[in-house]
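Thread: Newbie trying to understand structure tokens

Hi all, I'm a second-year student working on a class project, and my supervisor (Dr. K.) asked me to get a predicted structure for one chain before our next meeting. I've only ever worked with sequences, so writing a 3D structure as a token string is new to me. If someone could post the tokens and maybe explain what I'm looking at, I'd be very grateful. Here's the chain:
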Amino acid sequence: MEQKYCDGVEEISIASGVVRIDLYHFIPGPKGADGRPARELSHRVLLSPEAFVQTFTAFEQVVKQLQEKGLLQRRAEPWN
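---
Reply by user tm_fold:
Sure, no problem. This is what the structure looks like when written as tokens:
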């Protein structure tokens, strides 16, 4: 099985009934004006709406497990 690493999700969109998740990774070099590392798109995941909902549900379950183990705490503000 091939494995890919990403640093985050750049955008989630819907086109022609397909959910598209664009992933990015940080690139070495100078930081941007906001002080964050520069990043570039690395992969795109294409999912049917049904598969997206299943994936979302799986992510919710993992978040709950991380919170129960004390590895993740709820934030008052959304992530930027």
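A couple of things are worth pointing out once you decode it. The chain is about 25% helix and 40% strand. Strands lie at 8-15, 18-31, 37-47. Feel free to ask follow-ups in this thread.
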